[in-house]
Design a protein that fits this description.
Blueprint (H helix, E strand, L loop, with lengths): L4 E3 L8 E2 L15 E2 L6 E3 L5 E12 L5 E9 L2 E2 L5 E5 L6 E11 L4 E8 L6 E14 L1
Antiparallel strand pairs: 1-11, 2-10, 3-4, 4-10, 5-9, 5-11, 6-7, 6-8, 6-10
Length: 138
């Protein structure tokens, strides 16, 4: 992540794409992936794959006792079966989410991280995001 971002919520219990500015890591192997937009990995190989995806996220909230859920999304559709929830008890304290999932993809499918506020519409700041994927041809 190259710059933090604040995700705002118009509705409670509705997923929104996690905000922040991201960049594809040029020091690691990028064979089979590119970055189509912030917080997104796009599969570029012309094969059907199963991706082992992992997202590690550090967030803070400006209010106490708010519950947030995060999940991975494919083509901007959150996959709720992968979601994890955390109650952020203290304002300004960093909290960490880690999500791992196997996701079947074809060429040009996009993987990203989504978040929802389960309490109210208080915003959430993303301080760090690492989104990784390893493809297995099926």
């Amino acid at each position: 992540m190259t710059a933090s971002g604040t995700t705002t919520f118009e509705l409670t219990n509705t997923y929104y794409k996690l905000a922040g500015t991201t960049a594809l890591d040029a020091t690691l192997g990028q064979d089979g992936f590119d970055q189509a937009a912030n917080n997104e990995l796009r599969a570029t190989k012309a094969v059907n794959q199963v991706l082992l995806c992992t997202a590690n996220v550090e967030v803070t909230c400006g209010s106490n006792n708010k519950t947030f859920s995060m999940t991975l999304a494919k083509n901007n559709t959150p996959i709720d079966t992968f979601h994890i929830s955390e109650r952020l008890a203290s304002s300004g304290q960093p909290y960490f989410f880690s999500i791992t999932a196997l996701i079947p993809v074809v060429q040009n499918d996009r993987i990203s991280v989504y978040v929802r506020n389960d309490t109210d519409t208080t915003s959430l700041t993303t301080n760090n995001l690492t989104l990784t994927a390893v493809g297995f041809i099926r």
